[in-house]
Amino acid sequence: MADLKWHLSLYARLLGAQIRSQGAHRTSFLLDALGSLLITAAEFAALALVLPRFGGLGGWSFAEICLLYGLAELAFVLMDILFGGFDAPNLSAHVRSGSFSTFLLRPAPLTLQVFASDFALRRLPRVLLAAAIAGYGLTHAPLAAGPETAALLVASVLGMICFFGGLFVIGGTLTFWTVDSVEAMNVLTYGGRTLISYPMDIYGAWLRRTFTYLIPAAFLSYLPALHLLGRPLPDGLPEGAALLGPLAGPLVLAAAFAFWRLGVRHYQGTGT
Q1: pLDDT tens, 78-126?
Q2: Quick check: 161 and 75 in contact, CB under 8 A?
Q3: Using CB atoms within 10 A of its CB, is residue 257 exposed (0-12), middle (13-18) or buried (19+)?
Q4: Cβ count within 10 A of residue 72
Q5: Over the range 41-71, which residues count as b (16 or more CB within 10 Å of their CB) and which as e?
Q6: 254 vs 17, 74, 157, 167, 241, CA distance in Å?
Q7: Which tens digit of pLDDT belongs to each residue from 24-61?
């Protein structure tokens, strides 16, 4: 218990240093935050302007798609804030410059240092926008209000945070061998986030099944959303599969950190 308190205290101190450094240049910070917000706002505005003209997408109403889109965006942005230090471009810069070796020399847990090495407050406006989109979906989609609904939605968001955070950890760990980031990981991270922002049944069977059974992205939000909307699950899956779906995220994150520990043991530096 004492170790946990010390780790939390250290993490708070490291985050405090990050926040102070980002607040030192307020104009730059505000412009970065505005730019980050406008990217998401423009993307959603295109959806909001076009979709109502067609009355829906694949049998899903605008409010139901807002629910999927808002939850996926909210979870991904929160993950990006928490796991930004593991993002391959950030971690590869430390590996390439040799500054990652300084993490190993400091008398502090390595993983904790990486977590606190990039805490991007400029993404907070995107959190608010994503929460507003998800809120619209929650209030306009035909969901049954109750503790089960709230619990499943929270578990879905936490599962997505763990899932995409695990992909960030895997992508960052690969840079111990490749030095530069592996672009193929962006297909799974940013591409996966875009894919689960929309109903999976609009995709071809092979793509839907790949991101359901091989890469369990559909279990994170699509299956829980189907369950809450009273729709049958695809491929004859039992209703209980929607409740077990959010567990896929923590399992991916646990596997990712096992890979991370393997990578750290084999890290040799770049000679810089």
Answers
A1: 998 889 889 888 888 888 888 888 888 888 888 888 888 887 777 788 8
A2: yes
A3: middle
A4: 28
A5: beebeebbeebeeeeebeebbbbbbbbbbbb
A6: 28, 22, 17, 11, 20
A7: 667 776 777 787 778 888 888 887 888 777 777 778 88
